[in-house]
Each structure stands twice: as C-alpha cells, then as structure tokens.
Amino acid sequence: MRQSKRMRHLTSEAAKVGVVELPAAVAALKSFEAGLPKTIKPCKFDQTVALSVRLGVDPRQADQIVRGSIVLPHGIGKAKRVLVFAQGDNVAIAQQAGAEFVGGKELADKIKEGWVDFDVAIATPDMMGVVGPLGRVLGPRGLMPSPRAGTVTADVAGAVKEYRAGKVEFRVDAGGNVHCVVGKISFTEQQLVENTEALLKYVRSLKPSTSKGQYIRNVVLAATMSPAVSVVAI
C-alpha cells in the first residue's frame, strides 16, 4: 500500500530520531505535527498516543499470559462508556457512579443481537450466570468482564469511577506484544512521560516467573496518525 505524502515525511523524521530515552521519544512524537511543511495538511483531531511493548514471553503458555489494568496518573483524555450488569441495590449504585448502561438479562439479549456500543463491561459476581454466555460476543472484542481485570467485582461504584477516570486494560497478544493507550497528543510532555512510565513499571511487575532471558525486548510509542518512535528498552 502506497504511503501518503504526510506519512512519508513523518517516517523520514522518525528515522532521524532513532532509538531514544522516553522523554526524547515523547518530545519527538509531539514535534511531528508542528514540523510539517506548509504543503502538508496537519491532522485535524486530537490523536491518541499508544505504547507497544514486545515481551520475552510465550503467550501459548498459560503461565506466561501477561495482562492487567491500571489507572494512569493523568487518565487517557477520554471518559469511557461503562456498562454494568447488576441487580438489586447495585443498579442504583452503578447509575450514581456514572455508568451509562445498567441492567441484566435485557442488556445481555441486546448484546446477543449485536449491540456493543460501550467501552467497558462490568459485572457483579451474582450476574455471571447472565454474562457467561456472552463470551463469544464480548471476548473477541476485549469486553468480557473478568475478575483478573477487575471488571467482575462487588465494588461497583469503585470500578465504574476508575474506568470513567481513564483506567486501561491490556493483554499480551499471540505475538508476545502488549498495546495500550497512554493519553492524547495534546497532553503535555510530562503527562505523557508519567503515564508511560507508570504503565511500563506495571508491565515490568507482571513478569512471569517462567519467562527466561530479556523480558522487555522492544518499546515503541506512536500516535494515531504518525509512525512509531523507538524507546530504549530498560
């Protein structure tokens, strides 16, 4: 696929940056738009910035699956649309905490028909009988409630508030890579650095005991409409 004039220019700029420490990588990423020639139109929306980390793990082994969730220091610049499977008193609790959608079987039936207009699904433990059959729909989209991710919980209010504040989830893919949003290009350099450092520190803490050799092998930072900048892996 042929690259646009814009992407060819930015790819050339990224190549000049090389592999750098995190603060320099963030500075370079933010400079790309400002340094565009007048003949190239700048991006008209606030790009999402994401971190990608290649890990020295074998995702085929159950004891080397790396996954987790974290509330970043400065959020991600977007309030997530939260759906909660709950009943009884937890319905009002979820609504008061800010959940956009709260219910039980009626929501499950709607999802079975193809509706997935939300960013995160939370469920109380007593609702898993209703939620369980939705695995085929929600699982591939990364939306299936999970105790390990903190989305199956009795603390409905706490979970809703965390996700609306910008809590993010990640899971290693089949190639041993972790991808996760760390903010918006409009964030200050310090905010992006602190968010990324917090995520990297957490990923390091999740190193499986069975993982051998170098754990973090490659780190890159990229925005929606820009090439990646390589970060020194530590």
Briefly characterize the structure.
The chain has 234 residues and is of the alpha/beta class.
Describe it.
This protein has 234 residues and is α/β, with parallel strands linked by helices. The protein is built from eight helices and ten strands. It has helices at 5-17, 22-34, 89-97, 105-112, 128-131, 135-138, 156-164, 189-205; strands spanning 19-20, 48-55, 67-71, 82-85, 101-103, 120-123, 167-171, 177-184, 216-223, 229-231. The strands form three sheets. The chain has a five-stranded mixed sheet with strand order 1-10-9-2-8. A three-stranded parallel sheet has the order 5-4-6, with helices on both faces. A two-stranded antiparallel sheet has the order 3-7. The longest helix is centred in the last third of the chain and has 17 residues, at 189-205. The mean pLDDT is 92.
Supply the key terms.
10 strands; alpha/beta; 3-stranded parallel beta sheet; 234 residues; globular; single chain
How do the helices and strands line up, and which of them pair or pack?
Elements: H1 5-17, E1 19-20, H2 22-34, E2 48-55, E3 67-71, E4 82-85, H3 89-97, E5 101-103, H4 105-112, E6 120-123, H5 128-131, H6 135-138, H7 156-164, E7 167-171, E8 177-184, H8 189-205, E9 216-223, E10 229-231
Parallel strand pairs: 1-10, 4-5, 4-6
Antiparallel strand pairs: 2-8, 2-9, 3-7, 9-10
Helix pairs in contact: 1-2, 2-8, 3-7
